[in-house]
Amino acid sequence: MTKRCWWPGTDEIYIAYHDEEWGVPIHDDRLLFEFICLEGQQAGLSWITVLKKRDHYRKCFKNFEIDKVARLTDKTIEKHLLDAGLIRNRLKLYSIRSNAKACQAVQREFGSFDQYIWSFVDSKTIDGKRKLREDVPASTATSDEMSKDLKKRGFKFVGSTICYAFMQAAGLVNDHTGNCFRYRELKNSH
């Protein structure tokens, strides 16, 4: 039997996300933007709730193409507030557009969102070396720093816990537990 982290349980969507995406280093601006926005949508909810709505978010938010999202009108976002396929929270939905605008400014300053985000970990995946579920933190000094800087730049829904979840998902840290088959695969791919 394949050993994996505790959190996907038996849900097939969650297992596929764990096995194929979570913790794989992302260096694509569009995908990094998508991940940070979706982590923000999760605030106060479980990740599986967002994961099951991800395709609909992609459809409604222009596949998270940063320039297109930055141009969304209030009218469009207000219409999205009526869409049961999304998390209907006004601040969360508007944050996607404001994050796109903040992301554009970061791209202008750093050349890419990728360059900026990965600078927090010196462009290398941190090996979390987590043995047990209890060893996995909710936030770290690095996620505190990222959160503070993102907020200063106008990003919304980027508290330290959200930033750490983003770092885990986007492969800035390998937080698969030591007994998980993905921990070894990802560790050996660097």
UniProtKB/TrEMBL annotation:
Coiled-coil stretches noted in the UniProt entry, renumbered to this chain: none
Top EC class of this enzyme: hydrolase
Record's catalysed reaction(s): Hydrolysis of alkylated DNA, releasing 3-methyladenine
Keyword 4Fe-4S: no
Family matches, as Gene3D superfamilies: Hypothetical protein, domain 2 (1.10.340.30)
Binding positions (Zn(2+)): C5, H18, H176, C180
Entry keyword set: DNA damage, DNA repair, Hydrolase, Metal-binding, Zinc
The keyword Metal-binding appears for this protein: yes
Job description of the protein: Hydrolysis of the deoxyribose N-glycosidic bond to excise 3-methyladenine from the damaged DNA polymer formed by alkylation lesions.
Protein name: DNA-3-methyladenine glycosylase I
Native source organism of the sequence: OM182 bacterium
